Structures are given as C-alpha cells and as structure tokens.
C-alpha cells in the first residue's frame, strides 16, 4: 500500500466540489486516512510549493492557496499516488486534463485547477509530514 497527500484547493471548496471530489476518491477505492478543512498558513504553502519559487506564477499561487479554506487529505491504497493523479488529470485543465477527470470536468485555468496530489513517494512523505506532522513516517 502507498500514501499520497491530496489538497482540495480553495477554488474547489468555494465552488462546492468537496463532496463530488471525495466521492470520486471513494468510488475509485482509495481510503481516506486523514481529512481536514483549514486555511493554509503562508509558511506551509511556501514550503509545499518550494520547488516553484522563482517562477512567475509563484506569488499568485501562494496567494491563491492561502486565500480561503482548503481540504487536506491523506489517501491510502495500492498505487495511491498514480491512482489519484489519474483521477485529477493533467495540470492544465483544458490543455492537458481530459473529460472524465476532476480537472478536465470542472477546471478552466492552470492555477485554479481544483486539486493537488503528490507526484512521488518522496514528495508524498515530505508533504504528509508538512500538512499532518503527527502522521509523518518517523
Ligand atoms: P499539483 O502539484 O498541484 O498536483 P501539478 O503537479 O500537476 O500540480 P505543478 O507543475 O507542480 O503541477 O504546479 C503546481 C501548481 O501550480 C499547479 O497545480 C497549479 O495550481 C499551479 N500552476 C502550474 N503551472 C501554472 C501556470 N503556468 N500558471 C499558473 N499556475 C500554474
């Protein structure tokens, strides 16, 4: 089994898609092992997106991600990382994500793309430790 860190971003929460997205996660067969609605502090958001520091969209991304409540979750299951990224679709909801995916069905813009999912075991463990310190793998 594998773990992944998922964010249901502030745009999705504001638009009322939390239930829809959690429903897709549950129907896929992934287990929700942690779930929390919160407004991300700037330091957490900056650490989460540290790899994008210096990119032109970075300041706007931090403003967006801290600008309203989001839902942070830990999902568990076989190949959970790839399974959630399949549900999410590609980063750009129009250019990359296809219909049938969360971003492909509900997104229009590269930034406000509804969800985040860890992209590797290493980033999943780093992100779980950041968002849910009590669940950090020692
Ligand atoms: P995530 O890590 O959130 O699942 P991702 O791995 O598909 O997304 P990254 O390339 O890591 O995509 O970008 C992280 C986030 O930064 C994206 O999900 C999106 O919200 C934002 N972003 C990425 N590219 C752009 C862009 N060109 N313009 C605006 N925002 C962007």
TrEMBL record:
<feature type="binding site">
    <location>
        <position position="91"/>
    </location>
    <ligand>
        <name>ATP</name>
    </ligand>
</feature>
<dbReference type="InterPro" id="IPR036850">
    <property type="entry name" value="NDK-like_dom_sf"/>
</dbReference>
<feature type="binding site">
    <location>
        <position position="57"/>
    </location>
    <ligand>
        <name>ATP</name>
    </ligand>
</feature>
<keyword id="KW-0418">Kinase</keyword>
<keyword id="KW-0963">Cytoplasm</keyword>
<dbReference type="GO" id="GO:0005737">
    <property type="term" value="C:cytoplasm"/>
</dbReference>
<keyword id="KW-0808">Transferase</keyword>
<comment type="subunit">
    <text>Homohexamer.</text>
</comment>
<protein>
    <recommendedName>
        <fullName>Nucleoside diphosphate kinase</fullName>
        <ecNumber>2.7.4.6</ecNumber>
    </recommendedName>
</protein>
<comment type="subunit">
    <text>Homotetramer.</text>
</comment>
<dbReference type="GO" id="GO:0006241">
    <property type="term" value="P:CTP biosynthetic process"/>
</dbReference>
<keyword id="KW-0597">Phosphoprotein</keyword>
<dbReference type="GO" id="GO:0006183">
    <property type="term" value="P:GTP biosynthetic process"/>
</dbReference>
<dbReference type="GO" id="GO:0005524">
    <property type="term" value="F:ATP binding"/>
</dbReference>
<keyword id="KW-0546">Nucleotide metabolism</keyword>
<comment type="similarity">
    <text>Belongs to the NDK family.</text>
</comment>
<dbReference type="InterPro" id="IPR001564">
    <property type="entry name" value="Nucleoside_diP_kinase"/>
</dbReference>
<feature type="binding site">
    <location>
        <position position="9"/>
    </location>
    <ligand>
        <name>ATP</name>
    </ligand>
</feature>
<dbReference type="InterPro" id="IPR023005">
    <property type="entry name" value="Nucleoside_diP_kinase_AS"/>
</dbReference>
<dbReference type="GO" id="GO:0046872">
    <property type="term" value="F:metal ion binding"/>
</dbReference>
<comment type="function">
    <text>Major role in the synthesis of nucleoside triphosphates other than ATP. The ATP gamma phosphate is transferred to the NDP beta phosphate via a ping-pong mechanism, using a phosphorylated active-site intermediate.</text>
</comment>
<dbReference type="Pfam" id="PF00334">
    <property type="entry name" value="NDK"/>
</dbReference>
<feature type="binding site">
    <location>
        <position position="85"/>
    </location>
    <ligand>
        <name>ATP</name>
    </ligand>
</feature>
<keyword id="KW-0067">ATP-binding</keyword>
<keyword id="KW-0547">Nucleotide-binding</keyword>
<feature type="binding site">
    <location>
        <position position="103"/>
    </location>
    <ligand>
        <name>ATP</name>
    </ligand>
</feature>
<keyword id="KW-0479">Metal-binding</keyword>
<dbReference type="GO" id="GO:0004550">
    <property type="term" value="F:nucleoside diphosphate kinase activity"/>
</dbReference>
<feature type="domain" description="Nucleoside diphosphate kinase-like">
    <location>
        <begin position="1"/>
        <end position="138"/>
    </location>
</feature>
<feature type="binding site">
    <location>
        <position position="113"/>
    </location>
    <ligand>
        <name>ATP</name>
    </ligand>
</feature>
<dbReference type="GO" id="GO:0006228">
    <property type="term" value="P:UTP biosynthetic process"/>
</dbReference>
<dbReference type="InterPro" id="IPR034907">
    <property type="entry name" value="NDK-like_dom"/>
</dbReference>
<keyword id="KW-0460">Magnesium</keyword>
<feature type="active site" description="Pros-phosphohistidine intermediate">
    <location>
        <position position="116"/>
    </location>
</feature>
């Amino acid at each position: 089994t594998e773990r992944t860190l998922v964010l249901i971003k502030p745009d999705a929460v504001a638009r009322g898609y939390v239930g829809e997205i959690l429903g897709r996660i549950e129907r896929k067969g992934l287990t929700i092992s942690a779930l929390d609605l919160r407004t991300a502090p700037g330091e957490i958001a900056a650490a989460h997106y540290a790899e994008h520091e210096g990119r032109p969209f970075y300041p706007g991304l931090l403003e967006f991600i801290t600008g309203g409540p989001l839902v942070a979750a830990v999902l568990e299951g076989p190949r959970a990382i790839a399974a959630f990224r399949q549900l999410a679709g590609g980063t750009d909801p129009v250019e990359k994500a296809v219909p049938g995916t969360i971003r492909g069905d509900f997104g229009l813009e590269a930034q406000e793309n509804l969800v985040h999912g860890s992209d590797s075991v290493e980033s999943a463990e780093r992100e779980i430790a950041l968002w849910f310190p009590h669940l950090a793998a020692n």
